[in-house]
Predict the 3D structure of the following.
Amino acid sequence: MKIVLLGPPGAGKGTQAAKLTELLQVPALSTGDMLRAAVREGTALGKEAKGYMDSGALVPDALILQIVKEFLQTPACANGCILDGMPRNLKQAEALDELGVDIDLALSLEISDDEIVRRMGDRRVCPKCGTVFSVTANPPQKDNVCDKCGDALIIREDDKAETVLNRLKVYHAETEPIIGFYRAKGKLKTVDATQTIEDVNKALAGAVGL
Ligand code: AP5
């Protein structure tokens, strides 16, 4: 099963993708995580992507499509995959079709902008292993320390209040139209993302037929 996870920045796509990979036993690709790793490692991709990411803009489609093509060709994707953060605009959604990637289901996490702004203020991430926490909904066992690898947690560069507002603007202008794209194909299911992390996960599991 090939699944696309849709939703505004901070809706919980990464949190739920990690849980769905375990439930479905298929890999997930987070284009955001891959880009952040490239920035950390100082690769050519990272150097090109950084400015766009820091301002909350989308990284050029050609760079994203290259990452996704490589991921989809890996043997791990033979039984399906989860795309978290891609497609991000209609051009990327159409490019998946052109590549012959048959998306079975688009799961849209629904949440208001006000709730997003609050969530982003609470998010802490591990710069080493990428694990995501929330100081309110999903706190680490020890303040500001990653449960998995013990590194000090940080606030993501693009979680600054003014950047979050720009990311929301970009989401509504460029990404939201994808909801209609998949609805028209009869592949869209929506889930209330304001529930607890566990309840959102149960709703998503139901949506994929588990
Ligand atoms: P990306 O990393 O994809 O950012 P995003 O879509 O803005 O999503 P986030 O990672 O911010 O949030 P999320 O929905 O995964 O939520 P999370 O689970 O962390 O992209 C970053 C940048 O890369 C983009 O701005 C762009 O520049 C570039 N980029 C990436 N993909 C691209 C593409 N395809 N094309 C072009 N550019 C691209 O949860 C958020 C917080 O809420 C956490 O603290 C979490 O613990 C908490 N939380 C989660 N669920 C709940 C819940 N149910 N209740 C309470 N709290 C919750």
In short: The CA atoms of residues 20 and 170 lie 26 Å apart. Strands lie at 2-6, 28-30, 81-84, 105-110, 123-125, 132-134, 188-192.
